[in-house]
From TrEMBL:
One GO MF term: GTP binding
Keywords, sorted A to Z: Cytoplasm, GTP-binding, Nucleotide-binding, Protein biosynthesis
Species per Swiss-Prot/TrEMBL record: Pacificimonas flava
Protein name per UniProt: Peptide chain release factor 3
Primary residence: cytoplasm
Length: 540
């Protein structure tokens, strides 16, 4: 069944006088290895929701895309692109918030944090390649957070691995049960159709490139009708379909919600095959905004008091302005323009005079956000990744991870007279979450820690463009860093006394051990059993 053959609601059908508040929310992200088809799928999903009319728009750069965006003015004023960070669309009376995750693996930390702000993820797998490294990493973060996963096996219009093998691979590599919801009848040159177990219908590919294909409703996998609609060479493929229908486990909604089972959809984002099944599944099965882990207790989405946490910071690309956009997930209450919220970290209140509401296209302007929605908050450095904003004074969202850097470098300033400005620049970037910043207890060096080498280039060019400073990076004898968890003050002090030369503080003042290699780290772990050496620090 292609999107063309499905009756989509008219573009304005869901614009109700009651406004956004009345629509259920689904907040999700797409996780995949680069090239699996995330961008293409995003375009098609937005297209289906009427948010984008022309295919290619997500990818399109420059004026054409800007002219279409609802927040064009903000982008132009501030010179930043917020468009792709949050995309919203409506479909079937549901408002979808799709959070973009950067594809490049050097920026995976940003991706990880974005995953803390979603209730569900779509895992896109290339049918020819199966599970790739980046997919695996991102999946592990979803598992850590208990985020349910819907799988989309993409590119069935090309030769791929057999569906049975792909399902086995998911089960084995991810330790995740699978329930196929659809089944490709052949792939690549042999592709004849896509059967939906869920809708008991078959999309039949156009034969010999003619026409747009057709969908036949109410047809069984083992029916003579289906058999006669396919070519003779599809006979063995049909046997596979019948086997899958009989032998594969059924979808179990509870197991899905618990993150133990993934419904698997097959399709082609490029050819718009199976995308409608995926969208219907998100509408039907993806969880509504979930309670969020917090201290002293998880926050329920139906709590009246407004609360949210900052999961991403986007800096202004314009060097003349030092403002940034903080992206906040609303966790409870109805957030409105002008509202004052307290920041639990600083104890100070701030007025939300100019929040950016990400709205679906063709809607009347609605100045409020509901749980599950994302708002952009312009600020001049008052907000940080991990901050809690709320109407309650005693609330802290927990569980936003910081990851141990995999590359450490000493920052070298070309003009030593500018040390103070460099400090400011490094702290700003660390607060934005671009890099970890470490200050060794001995000496006056600054050490930056990043997840990938590309980030170092970004840091240097931003410091140059935004602060007018020229910096370089020198090697250090450390391979990685671990946050130190000590049971009490005495053991903390004892550890500092013992390892002073390798101990540093991060930008939040937390104690960090700079390790020369894995062997040294392992030895220390054995010798200091009362201490914890943490690769992931949860922001408290
Ligand atoms: P991303 O890196 O995951 O965002 O991947 P893209 O969406 O940019 O896709 C990578 C390449 O795969 C592009 O050349 C797409 O045109 C192509 N592609 C995406 N989906 C499909 C598909 O369903 N079938 C085929 N044949 N190619 C696809």
């Amino acid at each position: 069944m292609s999107l063309e053959t499905q009756t989509l609601p008219p573009k304005n059908a869901s614009v109700k006088a009651a406004g956004d508040a009345s629509l259920p929310r689904r907040t999700f992200a797409i996780i995949s290895h680069p090239d699996a088809g995330k961008t293409t799928l995003t375009e098609k999903l937005l297209h289906a929701g009427g948010a984008v009319r022309e295919a290619g728009e997500v990818r399109a750069k420059g004026d054409r895309r800007r002219a279409k965006s609802d927040w064009m003015a903000i982008e132009q004023q501030r010179g930043i692109s917020v468009t792709s960070s949050v995309m919203t669309f409506e479909f079937d009376g549901i408002r979808f918030n799709l959070l973009d995750t950067p594809g490049h693996e050097d920026f995976s930390e940003d991706t990880y944090r974005t995953l803390t702000a979603v209730d569900c993820a779509v895992m896109v797998i290339d049918a020819a390649k199966g599970i790739e490294s980046q997919t695996l990493k991102l999946f592990e973060v979803c598992r850590l957070r208990g985020i349910p996963i819907v799988t989309f096996i993409n590119k069935i219009d090309r030769e791929g691995v057999s569906p049975f093998e792909l399902l086995d691979e998911i089960a084995e590599k991810l330790a995740l049960d699978t329930a196929p919801m659809s089944w490709p009848i052949g792939m690549g040159g042999l592709f004849e159709g896509l059967y939906s177990f869920e809708h008991d219908c078959a999309f039949l590919a156009p034969q010999r490139g003619s026409g747009a294909g057709q969908t036949v409703e109410g047809i069984a996998p083992d029916s003579a009708e289906l058999r006669s609609a396919l070519t003779d060479s599809a006979a063995p493929l049909l046997e596979d379909l019948i086997l899958a229908a009989e032998a594969c486990p059924a979808f179990d909604r509870e197991a899905f919600a618990a993150g133990d089972l993934t419904p698997v959809y097959f399709g082609s984002a490029l050819k718009e095959i199976g995308v409608d099944h995926l969208l219907a599944a998100l509408a039907r099965y993806a969880p509504s905004p979930q309670p969020q882990p917090a201290d002293p207790a998880p926050v329920q989405p139906d709590d009246d008091k407004v609360s949210g946490f900052i999961f991403k910071m986007q800096a202004n690309m314009d060097p003349n302005h030092r403002d940034r956009i903080a992206f906040m997930r609303v966790c409870s209450g109805t957030l409105t323009r002008g509202m004052r919220l307290g920041n639990s970290r600083t104890g100070k209140a701030m007025g939300l005079h100019n929040p950016i509401f990400f709205l679906a296209r063709d809607r009347a302007v609605v100045d409020e956000a509901q749980p599950g929605d994302i708002v952009g908050i312009p600020n001049h450095g008052t907000l940080r990744v991990g901050d809690t904003l709320s109407e309650r004074s005693d609330l802290f969202f927990t569980g936003l991870p910081d990851f141990a850097p995999e590359l450490l470098r000493r920052v070298r300033l070309e003009d030593p007279m500018k040390a103070k400005q460099m400090r400011r620049a490094l702290i700003d970037l660390a607060e934005e979450g671009i890099a970890r910043l470490f200050r060794p207890l001995l000496g006056s060096d600054w050490i930056v820690g990043v997840v990938g080498a590309l980030q170092l280039q970004v840091i240097a060019s931003r410091i140059e463009a935004e602060y007018g400073l020229s910096v370089g990076f020198d090697m250090v004898p450390y391979e990685t860093a671990r946050w130190i968890g000590a049971p009490d003050e005495a053991s903390r002090k004892a550890f500092i006394a013992r390892e002073r030369a390798s101990v540093a503080e991060d930008e939040d003042g937390a104690l960090v051990f700079l390790a020369r290699n894995a062997w040294q780290l392992q030895r220390l772990e054995e010798e200091c059993p009362d201490l914890k050496f943490l690769a992931v620090k949860e922001r408290q």
